[in-house]
Design a protein that fits this description.
The complex is a heterodimer of chains A (105) and B (120).
Chain A (H helix, E strand, L loop, with lengths): L2 E4 L2 E3 L6 E7 L7 E6 L6 E5 L3 E2 L7 E6 L2 E6 L9 E6 L11 E4 L1
Parallel strand pairs in A: 2-10
Antiparallel strand pairs in A: 1-3, 3-8, 4-5, 4-9, 5-6, 7-8, 9-10
Chain B lengths: L2 E4 L3 E3 L5 E8 L8 E6 L5 E8 L4 E4 L8 E5 L4 E6 L8 E8 L7 E4 L3 E5 L2
Parallel strand pairs in B: 2-11
Antiparallel strand pairs in B: 1-3, 3-8, 4-5, 4-9, 5-6, 7-8, 9-10, 9-11
The chains are: A mainly beta (105), B mainly beta (120).
């Protein structure tokens, strides 16, 4: 299953609302996760099952979608949110990732 | 605290072999799968494969099948990723990670990453 993210990069400011999209090459139900990767760090899980917030993740992050089209929304960007975001399908092996979206200042 | 601690950075020559490790602690190691993810320089994440340390059941991505070997030593609470003959294209950061629950769950615990550099 191929995962395609858009845009590949986005410029934004502190406090902005940002939306990232992810499209699967075939239907995956709600089996989608989102991660944030800050420079030089391991990824951290934000959202699983398309819209469930991982424990400890701020409520400014939300996810939606099902089937082939999904979105990650950050309601009010904070300094630590300037990072790269990846979607991952968890429907079937291999659990492929999208190409990433970099949120830049 | 649940954590995965990976072995340190490696510098190798093409053709050499290598085994890197990932040690789990703070949870029942044999009850959770452990996966491996590659990140080539400046690139995205690639799911390589996953192992269940309880019985060493392993699934590989077709892209990595035959290129690497994933193993586990449950007595040491450690999983391994190994190469028999490295190539320059194996240069990358390799992460181990634990899924939330089952083998097809997203990863909620990650190791710090191991940088592997392959250069003549």
């Amino acid at each position: 299953i191929q995962m395609t993210q858009s845009p590949s990069s986005v410029s934004a400011s502190i406090g902005d609302r940002v939306t990232i999209t992810c499209r699967a090459s075939q239907g995956i139900g709600s089996w989608l996760a989102w991660y944030r990767q800050n420079p030089g760090k391991a990824p951290t899980l934000l959202i699983y099952a398309a819209s469930s917030l991982q424990s400890g993740v701020p409520s400014r992050f939300s996810g939606s979608g099902s089937g082939t089209d999904f979105t990650l929304t950050i309601s009010s960007l904070q300094p630590e949110d300037f990072a790269t975001y990846y979607c991952q399908q968890t429907n079937s092996f291999p659990l492929t990732f999208g190409g990433g979206t970099t949120v830049e200042i | 605290e649940m954590q995965l601690v990976q072995s340190g950075a490696e510098v190798k020559k093409p053709g050499e072999s290598l085994k890197i490790s990932c040690k789990g602690s703070g949870y029942s190691f044999t009850s959770y799968w452990i996966g491996w993810v590659r990140q080539m320089p400046g690139k995205g994440l690639e799911w390589m494969g996953i192992i269940y340390p309880g019985d060493s059941d392993t699934t590989y991505s077709p892209s990595f099948q035959g290129q690497v070997r994933i193993s586990a030593d449950k007595s040491m609470s450690t999983t391994y990723l190994q190469w028999s003959s490295l190539k320059a294209s194996d240069t990358a950061i390799y992460y181990c990670a634990r899924p939330r629950s089952g083998s097809e769950d997203p990863f909620d615990i990650w190791g710090q990453g191991t940088l592997v550099t392959v250069s003549s």
